[in-house]
Amino acid sequence: MRTLLTGHTPYIMAAFGLAGFILILLTLWVLHADRKARHQRKDWVSDEP
Amino acid sequence: MTLKHLTPKSILSWGEAILPWAIAIAFFFGSMGLLLGLVFSPADYQQGESVRIMYVHVPASWGALGAYTTMAVLSGWAFISRAPLLHLMTKAIAPVGMAFAMISLGTGAIWGKPTWGTWWVWDARLTSMLLLLFLYFGYWALVTAGEEDEKSLSAGGVIALVGWINVPIIKWSVEWWQTLHQPASVLRFAKPAIHWSMLTPLLCMAIAFAAYGLVISIIRLRTEINRRKIRSFFIRESRPLKQKEAA
């Protein structure tokens, strides 16, 4: 643990953690909105073009 | 594919066909990039271990610039061809570019602290990148304001098109002005000034970011098309009711 927290490792962890957090948040929001729109379309609108 | 073939149905069927491949590419190259970048690539002789932040900072920056350029091209094409689907495609790409710009600025600040001794400086590269994030915010505010109709999409298209002037400024800012930010090491006219042991994980991560961006854009486009179908259905359904009320 001491080796892990010395030098620049916390900065590397913070950078990759931030990127992961933003990408996961974006993915969840996009999937949620897509699911909601698909369900609404299925319920109310036919699949005719 | 000509404009005649550019229908919501055709573009979605293309997107659905590409989707599993893009997901597989994002996972494969993402895993390879992380493994090579965090475990196998060497530390820098000057920056030490903190150079590994490059493997997420640089692909995110390229992604943010690439996404904005794609948005500008699609918006320009939409104004010329008057095809509303192109405006929807622009809107589908915007959240990806916005997220990439946030990652670029955030990881850049984290990288700046051990390298420069400061989280932020108002130099040309950093300021122009922050401006790009504000352009994304401006675009998103315009296209999601009010009725989310053709007018707001066109207004957003103008921002995407005019704001593109900032992209070459970001790219060349390190050459035109004295900045703290280092000059380009990969995307330059001469040979890349970076060793293959660092270039390989960097390119793997860039491919992973691009594939991820494609996945999110396809799903967003599907959502936008579905939302418009629902909206036009409700407008169609409410019309006779309004006519009855008027009578």
Rg of Cα set of chain A: 20 Å
Q: Uncertain segments of chain A of ≥5 residues (pLDDT<50)?
A: 1-5
Secondary structure tally: strands of chain A: 0
Counting DSSP H or I runs of 4 or more residues, the number of helices of chain B is 7
- Strand proportion of chain B, as a percent range, falls in under 5%
Strand portion of chain A, in percent? under 5%
Helical residue percent band of chain A = over 70%
Layout of secondary structure:
The complex is a heterodimer of chains A (49) and B (247).
Chain A (H helix, E strand, L loop, with lengths): L8 H36 L5
Chain B lengths: L7 H33 L13 H28 L2 H33 L7 H21 L5 H13 L3 H11 L19 H51 L1
Helix pairs in contact in B: 1-7, 2-3, 2-5, 2-7, 3-4, 3-5, 3-7, 4-5, 4-6
Keywords:
heterodimer, A: 49 residues, mainly alpha, 1 helix, rod-shaped, disordered N terminus, B: 247 residues, 7 helices
Please give a structural write-up.
The complex is a heterodimer of chains A (49) and B (247). Helices cover 73% and strands 0% of the residues of chain A. Chain A has 1 helix and no strands. The termini of chain A are far apart. Residues 1-5 of chain A have low confidence and may be disordered. In chain B, 77% of the residues lie in helices and 0% in strands. The longest helix of chain B has 51 residues, at 196-246. Chain B is an all-alpha fold and 247 residues long. Chain B has 7 helices and no strands.
Brief digest:
Chain A has one helix spanning 9-44.
